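Fold this: Protein phosphatase 2C
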Amino acid sequence: MEGLFRTDKGKVRPHNEDSGSVSKHPSGNVWLAVVADGMGGHRAGDVASKIAVDRMEASFNEKESFEDSKDIKSWFEEIIHEINGEVLRLGSLHREYQGMGTTVVAAVCTPYMIGIVNVGDSRCYIADVNGFRQATSDHSLVNELVRAGRISEKEAEDHPRKNILTQAIGTEKNISPDLYFPSTEGDTRILLCSDGLTDKVSDPELSKLQDFSEQDEGLVQHWIDLANERGGEDNISLAVIKRPAFTDKEGER
């Protein structure tokens, strides 16, 4: 496996509130990718996103192993709630941090399975021999309206309230992260990204993720350039992990 993380502050915002990383577990061929999109502007969104990424990466490195989906699930649930508590605690103790929050999307990849967690509207996409698809569902007001049949997916693209989240780290004590364990076949790529990308680059354009003749670095830079060419009003962050087809066992899904 291999991976990379890239971030760009875009064309408009004075600083970057996104954070992210891609790292390999000390024990071997297990990888973690994280993207966090901080919220709050002057109220320290960048602090919240950095806390999320740093705490998740440190906990990942400290954990002895990731044996199966139950192991990954329990770790995701524990670390997400720890991060949420820490962001809330800092917000209550420091006036300059009040109101800060962040989205989080993360993936743990082993040779035999992929586990994904998300809170907010940062997304995970997957590409393999069966095609390209979005693996997560946004925690947003507009997505709730789409699922309820009140607006179409096309209407959602330009909806005036598209950036209102129904869940995020640091906004309330009790959160319910979504967990996914998607089945994949053959060579697989996992893309995690903030809405600074998906607001500007369409799913058909992101579907180039399934073209394994394209190098990860080139694809990522192409998408960042597109988002900036189309306005770049938001920070843009992407993490990619490439997992080759496994050959001995599929493990627990």
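Confidence is low (pLDDT under 50) at residues 248-253. The first helix runs from residue 45 to 62.
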